[in-house]
Fold:
Amino acid sequence: MAKRWYVVHTYSGYENKVKTDLLQRIETYGMEERIVDIQIPTEQVTEIKDGGKRETKEVKVFPGYVLVRMELDDETWSVVRNTAGVTGFVGSQGNPVPLRRSEFNKLMGRSTGASPRDAKRATMTTNLEVGMSVKVISGPLADFEGEVAEVMPEAGKVRVMLMIFGRETPVELTLDQVSATLS
Structure:
């Protein structure tokens, strides 16, 4: 039987515990040949703290979900489903539906040929620079214009100084929310 990727729903915040417990259950029940991999999609996020200090941390892309590669049968389904913290499989009408390879690659944020252990999200690039004039093109601040104060391509964000209520206010936006204006 073919091993396929399935999405398992867990209690949010329990993904790592579910992975640890499931690995232990797989060993206990001798299922190493039938349940072969467990992944928690993550990405590196760089946050700018007070004083400009950068802090990079790994965050879960889909809190409350774990990906399991397995041969689906009654025994493997039971081992996974009865793991503490698991609420069920993602599927239709109570039946787990396997992911297509393209869906798995998209969830893991990578191209077709990479290994799951290499799963990292790409850092965004931009032509925005400090001091450039920009216009907010989406979100609650759409149509405001301002000046770029900081560009954070690792986080996919930009800090823009906008005039709000007559005061210059720093606002952090995603790169796709702004467009350079011709000045």
